[in-house]
Amino acid sequence: MPDARPILKWAGGKGQLLDRLQPLFPPKFNRYIEPFAGAGAVFFRLHNLGLIGANPRLRVKPAILNDFNGELMAVYQAVRDHLDELLDELTRHQAHVNDPDYYYYVRNLDREPDFRQWPLPVRAARTIFLNKTGYNGLYRVNQSGYFNVPFGRYQHPTVLDRETLKAAHLALQHVDLMCSDFAQPLRLARKGDFIYIDPPYQPLSRTANFTAYTSRGFGWSEQQRLAKWLARIARRGCYVLINNADTPQVRELYCSAFQERGVLIHMESFETTRNINSAPDARSGGQELTVWNY
To answer: Which of 13, 88, 204, 238 has most Cβ atoms within 10 angstroms of its Cβ?
Structure first.
């Protein structure tokens, strides 16, 4: 079985930063908590390294993955609990990967009044299909909460990736999956837990504003609330590792929040490619800020 890796493309995914982030992972921790699961690149790397569930005395499940995006968490739940049914649904979609009419038909299914009550593997397969065949792998909804990304026109998109899905299925066993505000999993954090934070970033420009993963969005007031929560659990004795856009406002936000709680932090900046930006000339040279407290 190959190593587990992300199932979906996701704006801000950490695949290209994993080798730089890995030396910052705590060598030992109790539970792993990720309040903004996204593509789960860090989770899957920790799983492959054998760091999740390494404490045999842990009395709770070894990891919590949370995201406010219900369709994303439906994918994780279907992969964990309904893999065979999901594979069957994806087999049907794979036959239509180059058909724009089929794409728009599937895209508009969330307009159906009973869509949220559809079987989990059906909804999850739809999300995977749209992610693999939609423009640039972007997940975006309008103010009504309807998916509105155009057709991507890839030559040979792979919707049915059996080996990746089977590896993810194994990695997700004994993982708690939540779909809630980020504060809910943070309330469960205890001393010795490792919390990785990769929120929707503060926009660097109008064209770089990709916070519309849900119709609620993620504005500056949410960034402030998050920073206060992170300083609180760091004071509690948790290992906190954060990524965000490297801007003076974000640096000041974390410095102030952690200083108020008397917690020492470290900061480092990495250059990365923002390859989901809709403007091609804005896809390079982005600075990622990494913050940690241990």
So the answer is: 238
Q: Are 152 and 82 in contact (CB under 8 A)?
A: no
256 dihedral zone (left: phi>0; alpha: psi -120 to 50; beta): alpha
Architecture of the CATH domain 15-69+178-292: 3-Layer(aba) Sandwich (3.40)
Does residue 286 sit in helix, strand or coil?
strand
Confidence label for 29 from pLDDT (cuts 50, 70 and 90) = very high
How far, in Å, are 102, 151, 166 from residue 97 at the CA level?
8, 10, 21
Place 10 in a pLDDT band, splitting at 50, 70 and 90.
confident
Q: For residue 119, give both structure tokens.
A: 């079987």
Secondary structure element (H or E) that encloses residue 74, with its range? helix 70-81
Q: Which of 200, 219, 205 is nearest to 286 (CA)?
A: 205
Select the more confidently predicted residue: 223 or 201: 223
Largest CA distance in the chain: 57
For 246, the token pair is 């490297």
Contact by Cβ (8 Å): 159, 128: yes
Cβ(244)–Cβ(218) below 8 Å? no
Strands (E) located in 110-189: 175-178
| CB hemisphere CA count around 26 (13 angstroms) | 20
- Provide the residue ranges of all domains of the chain, joining segments of one domain with +: 15-69+178-292, 76-163
- Taking residues 270-280, what's their average pLDDT? 61
Residues above pLDDT 90, as percent of the chain: 82
Q: How far is it, in rounded angstroms, from Cα 45 to Cα 40? A: 9
Q: Which residues of 7-35 are buried (b: 16+ CB within 10 A; e: fewer)?
A: bbbbbbbbeebeeebeeebbeebbbbbbb
CATH (residue range 76-163):
1.10.1020.10
- Total length of the chain: 294
Prediction pTM value: 0.91
